Amino acid sequence: MQYPTRTYDMRKALSGFALVAALVSGQSFADPGTLAALKSAGVALTEAQAQSVADAEGDALADAIASLVTANPGAAATIVGAAVTASPAQAAAIVSAAVTAAPDQAAAIVAAAVSVAPNRATAIVAAAVSAAPDHAAAIVFAAVSALPEQAAAIVAAAVAAAPDHASAIVAAAIAAAPDQAVAITAAATSAAPDQADAISDAAQDAVADNAIVSTSNTVAGPSPRSSGSSGSSGSSGGSGGAGSEANTAANSSAPSGSGGGGSASPN
């Protein structure tokens, strides 16, 4: 009568060993999808970097991506685009970590992320602006340029994350999607009502600048006039600099020319 019990106990033991083995194996390659995506995008990795990404789980993945970006900031957009494609649920965390690691690449990082995960655009923008508020205008210009139909929602998220930059955010968004000016202004005002006057002034200046540039382009080609020259300096929240900051955002939002083949290995 003892044999059945021993057989049952042995089966339980074997099952336990199998479970432990599976868990250990899973720890070794916790996120092979992201690693494969990085390799497919042409990101060169050292063996240690590849193992770090493969081992990463949850929040650790964002840290692993930030490490790659730190090692090769010129390839930040390619790295983040691949990582978000493979792990969209971690998009905001990945972008936040990457922007913190390479704030000068914030616009390119956001453009890459929202392009592959448009349904997470507001979370991505909020994370990026929170990580690098001084780059808020460039971040918003990049995001709205990629997804103009989400302009109002993107602006609301950005202004909520950095209300002190509301006027510059609005100017950049309108520069990227002038047809959405009314919705952009309303969204920004709702997110930061105490900045209403500065937002209104920035919006009016941005709309006027866009009209001048559009007319100039139609009649005589691109105008050499800086879009920031008509910014109003008298309103609260710094709207006087919003025009020039939006112009800077447009120039800085273009991805760097490193391409997907950049190595993430340290120099």
State the end-to-end distance. 69 Å
Count the helices. How many?
Answer: 14
Oligomerization: single chain
Give the % helix: 55-70%
Q: What Rg is obtained from the alpha carbons, in whole angstroms?
A: 24 Å
Number of strands: 0
Largest sheet: none
The low-pLDDT segments are 10-29, 222-240, 255-262
Spell the H/E element sequence. Answer: HHHHHHHHHHHHHH
Look at the structure and give the mean pLDDT: 81
Measured by DSSP, the beta-strand proportion falls in under 5%
Structural class: mainly alpha
Approximate shape: elongated
Word description of this protein:
By secondary structure, this protein is an all-alpha fold. It has 14 helices and no strands. It is 68% helix and 0% strand. The radius of gyration is 24 Å and the shape is elongated. It starts with a helix and ends in a 15-residue tail after the last helix. Residues 10-29, 222-240 and 255-262 have low confidence and may be disordered.
Structure described in brief:
By secondary structure, the chain is mostly helical. The protein has 14 helices and no strands. Helix 9 (136-146) crosses helix 14 and helix 11 (166-176) packs across helix 14.
What attributes does this structure have?
mainly alpha; 14 helices; elongated
Secondary-structure topology with pairs:
Blueprint lengths: L1 H27 L3 H9 L6 H9 L3 H13 L4 H11 L4 H11 L4 H11 L4 H11 L4 H11 L4 H11 L4 H11 L4 H11 L4 H25 L21 H11 L15
Helix pairs in contact: 2-3, 2-5, 3-4, 4-5, 4-6, 5-6, 5-7, 6-7, 6-8, 7-8, 7-9, 8-9, 8-10, 9-10, 9-11, 9-14, 10-11, 10-12, 11-12, 11-13, 11-14, 12-13
